[in-house]
Amino acid sequence: MKDAFGAPQSLLVLGGTSEIALATARRLIALRTRRVWLAGRPSPALESAAAELRGRGADVRTVDFDALDSASHEVVLGKVFAEGDVDVVLMAFGVPGDQARDEEEPMAAVRVAQTNYTGAVSAGLVCAGALQAQGHGSLVVLSSVAGERARRADFIYGSSKAGLDAFAQGLGDALQGTGVQVLIVRPGFVRTRHTAGLPEQPFATGPEEVATAIVTGLRRRSETVWVPGALRVVMAALRHVPRPLFRRLPV
User: Fold this and answer.
1) Hey, which residues does 190 pair with through a beta bridge?
2) Do 185 and 143 meet the contact criterion of CB atoms below 8 Å apart?
3) I need a labelling partner for 95 at 20 to 30 A (CA). Which of 147, 157, 160, 223 fits?
4) Which segments in the chain show pLDDT lower than 50?
5) Is 157 a catalytic residue?
6) Of 37, 81, 117, 157, which residue is the catalytic one?
7) Whole-model pTM above 0.85?
């Protein structure tokens, strides 16, 4: 449950090495979050992330979680919820893919879709059911502006995020009145290790800015946040640009 200061006391991160997720965890720990589960594939990076958060005063545990192994999600995540209530679940796993390669190798494209969409549907439904059973909590879904409209440059990744975003919207509607909040986060270009070396896009941000938006959205019980906020207006306009013209835009 949230404490008297309105901050969540427990956090489950799906995608435990995500730079955005870890930046969010640091901010929540500073606001009195005391128990954190970092779920991801076993790796030195996952253990290092856990150690760093422990150094900030949190009780941190790692959980073996594979987004592609949907058959295991109910058991793996069920064990986490069996340890006690979870106030916030942050779904931060995903892969950007490589558009040129993925067009040439369909199975690589399928992997992007299965990770970003199918895995998220599976894990999202398991967590939503557990949150509903405990009667409270927030599910934060890390989406992307890339899902707002398919672009030639990244339509495979963008389509996976479009599916995830639509799923999260519907799930949020289904959970109305249950005490469970679904917060959809739509960042633009974020400077992370996954985007290192890529040309920087307009409205670029960093993990810290996204983390700030997530914490603010949780406090306000928002349904959707854009990072930066100006992208809400930009994408509202781009959604209505005719396709022949949209193809020629440098976006």
Assistant:
1) 205
2) yes
3) 223
4) 3-5
5) yes
6) 157
7) yes
